[in-house]
Design brief:
- By secondary structure, the chain is α+β, with helices and mostly antiparallel strands.
- The protein has a single domain (5-415), classed as Cytochrome P450 (Cytochrome p450, Orthogonal Bundle), CATH 1.10.630.
- Helices cover 52% and strands 13% of the residues.
- It is built from 16 helices and 14 strands.
- The relative contact order is 0.18.
Length: 417
């Protein structure tokens, strides 16, 4: 289970059906993957739940921010960050995204070899850096990424009984996280001082947070959320999309739409005119959702989808499981973008069976930004570069807060002339 949590949940679903219960001491844990459960837990009865154990433990690692807060505090933080992730703000940023990706591709050699995960991570890191700081300050962003990754690597340790004791031990990976956490605060302080000292600069997210009255500690908390929402989700989705197109036969309409969208400099708001591009993004997020598991804890006795649950029961819903269920998707483990298209129009799946960014007031705030970045990236990449896998080794999933390939993916590339 610890080696492959998504695979374990999918196996349990296939063997035992939509509802499964297990216990750890006096605590009850449920896996509940049914459309009615999704609707009630995430929407209609969401106020009867708080975030689950995993997020409660993450709070000990990354502090009080949008990912971990509840109630009024959550609403207040989300209101501030909603300006950063508004469609207007992101639409204005879309030209910056496209320009930077063009520059990135132009700096690449005409052909060579690269590791796909690193390539996608670097692109998404530079894009989130431009958004946060107004410049692709790669060293600082890499330091932020290191701190967050070191923290996220502790998530499953935090679910082990006695985790408070473990966190006090001088274990190398715990010491590594604490050291990188200190470095993070110093880096952000330097960036803030640097921006305040410059008389002329590009407007960025930090300026927006300062205008909102955030102090330095609050800005750091927001940056962690922005980084996870804007970098992690985009990087993982982009690498899975590129890998999936390399390992599956794509319909010719896909590349025709790519060339048309790129040559006409189309924006994400025009994506409905390109059903095969949209279907490719939808299918990638179906198989590899940005949020693969959603945990909640009941704060009162409650009935969900006809079943009774007691106060403090933990319930997990998995977009990964629901979106790979043969009940809702034919041949569910296959990458098939045609499943989404009927007469050049995108079809809508059964409600509450497809939710890669979750639902409701606690859905992924970076949804639109991630989709815009993916659209801009793939139309430029596919129209400029040809990739070829160096080998066909099996790629498995590393599931933390997002889903990423566990192995390196090496490709040969050649730029179109």
């Amino acid at each position: 289970m610890m080696m492959d949590p998504p695979g374990y949940q999918l196996e349990m679903y296939c063997q035992h059906g939509p509802l499964m219960r297990t216990s750890l001491g006096k605590k009850n844990f449920y896996l509940f993957n049914h459309p009615d459960a999704v609707k009630e837990i995430l929407l209609t009865k969401a106020s009867s739940f708080k975030k689950g154990m995993a997020v409660q433990n993450v709070q000990k690692i990354i502090g009080n921010n949008l990912l971990t807060l509840e109630g009024k505090d959550h609403a207040q933080k989300r209101k501030i960050l909603s300006k950063v992730f508004s469609k207007t703000y992101i639409s204005d940023f879309e030209d910056v995204i496209t320009s930077h990706i063009n520059q990135k591709i132009s700096q690449m050699p005409s052909e060579g070899t690269l590791e796909l995960k690193s390539f996608c991570s670097e692109i998404s890191m530079e894009l989130i850096s431009l958004m946060l700081f107004g410049t692709p300050v790669s060293k600082e962003v890499q330091a932020i990424e290191k701190t967050i990754h070191n923290g996220l690597s502790l998530i499953y340790m935090m679910n082990i009984p006695g985790n408070k004791f473990f966190m006090k031990l001088p274990l190398p990976f715990i010491q590594k996280f604490k050291q990188s956490q200190k470095e993070l605060y110093l880096i952000i302080e330097q960036l803030l001082n640097s921006r305040q000292a410059r008389s002329s600069r590009t407007y960025s997210t930090i300026d927006l947070l300062i205008e909102a009255g955030c102090n330095q500690e609050e800005i750091i908390e927001h940056l962690i959320v922005l980084f996870i929402a804007g970098q992690e989700t985009t990087s993982s989705a982009l690498v899975w999309l590129l890998y999936s197109t390399l390992t599956n036969e794509m319909p010719p309409e896909f590349l025709l739409e790519i060339r048309k969208a790129d040559s006409e400099n189309k924006k994400y708001q025009d994506i409905l005119d390109y059903p095969h591009i949209q279907a490719c993004i939808l299918e990638t997020l179906r198989l590899y959702p940005s949020i693969w598991n959603i945990g909640r804890q009941a704060i009162e006795d409650i009935e969900i989808a006809g079943y009774q649950f007691k106060k403090d029961d933990y319930i997990a819903i998995s977009p990964f499981v629901m979106q790979r269920s043969p009940k809702f998707f034919k041949n569910p483990n296959a990458f098939d973008i045609k499943r989404w298209i009927v007469k050049d129009c995108i079809i809508t799946p059964q409600k509450f069976t497809y939710f890669p960014f979750s639902y409701g007031t606690r859905n992924c705030i970076g949804k639109t930004l991630s989709e815009v970045e993916i659209f801009c990236a793939i139309k430029k990449i596919f129209n400029s570069i040809e990739f070829t896998l160096k080998d066909n080794k099996k790629i498995t999933i590393s599931a933390k807060m997002t889903m990423a390939p566990k192995q390196e993916i090496w490709v040969d590339f050649k730029k179109y002339t």
